[in-house]
Amino acid sequence: MIDLKKIIEISNDVENKSNKDLFNAIEILSIEFEKTKSLIIDLTRHLELVESMYDDINKEIGKRTRK
What is the pLDDT of residue 1? Predict the structure, then answer.
C-alpha cells in the first residue's frame, strides 16, 4: 500500500515514475475519489434533512410567537 507522501511524490514527478507506481497511485486515488464523493453525497442529504427539519420547527415557532 502506498502512503500519502508517496502519492504526492508520484504526482509531482509522473514522467519519471514506474508503471507500477503509477498504477498503484491511480488505484488508490480512484478509491479515495469514490469514498469522498460518497461522503459528500451522504453529507448533502443529511444537510438537506437538517435544513428541512429546522425550517419546519422555525415556522411553527414563528406561528406560536406571533399570537
Answer: 60
- HEC readout, 1-67: CCCHHHHHHHHHCHHHCCHHHHHHHHHHHHHHHHHHHHHHHHHHHHHHHHHHHHHHHHHHHHHHHHC
Residue spans of the domains in the chain: they are: 4-66
- What is this structure's pTM? 0.76
* Residue 10 CB neighbours (<10 A): 20
Residue type, 17: K
Residues in the chain: 67
